[in-house]
Amino acid sequence: MNTQAVNAQDIRAFGKVAVLFGGNSAERKVSLASGKAVLNALQTAGIDAHKFDPAENPIGDLVLSGFDRAFIILHGRGGEDGSMQGALQLLGIPYTGTGVLGSAVAMDKVFSKQIWSALGLPTARYKVVTKARVNSAVKPDYADILAQLSGVAMVKPVREGSSIGMAKVSDAQELENAVQRALEYDDDVLVEEYINGPEYTVTILNGVALPSIRMATPHVFYDYDAKYNDKTTEYYCPSGLDDATEKHIGELSLNAFHGLSGRGWGRVDLMQNELGDFMLLESNTVPGMTETSLVPKAAKQAGLSFEQLALQVLSSSLE
Q: Is 267 a catalytic residue?
């Protein structure tokens, strides 16, 4: 659907739309902000769109209320991990974005890296620490783990987003403490070799890679506060890459997204190492959609207003 000129017939084709946001994940606050922005944009465009918070309403109410489709803007578990996608499929309600398999795989950073590695796509070296191993008689050898990852690493809960539970570590005690904190969010923890270089993100919209964005922050890394609270974070779009490199990062992101069975829209995060190589970090199948989020910034650079972007995402539910 061409959102540059949406006519009345296009609008009617969407029917009654439930904008799913809020939920019970650790990213509820971000989801509420994204959902409000999307709901306002769709209503402004003339869509019969309504708020639906799964934390406040049984999912079966979508059928009882006569919704024709769902715009999923639930971040994290329960909305981005395949469970909501599966529920909507059972209810017979079309939805935006990636399906059950792709959502579940992309939500898991380790599975994502394993698939990318199998496809020959670049991603940093890593180790996995499990809660079962930490609680066992044979504890992880944190010094050995760190040594295998060049001495500096990022610690990440395997199935969380928005940089929740993440930490940068450079000695065994820091690693152990960071793993313990990350285990508060997940039973599995990714310990990933630290990449010393700029961070980029590429938005995927209906099979097209939008202009890349480079993020810069005075924080130790691009953490939750840098993303949502700190005004010192800088965003560059265009990102400053030459045309050939911009094409490369776009193709790499498309391959990474589709390699995880991504569909419709999403965002792929990467970092560039000291050798100039781009390394894949993760794929987000329901990225932030506030007025200041990364996806709207890339869409604006590509010539799409926030309202047009929301309609493009909604059109993925018609597939």
A: yes
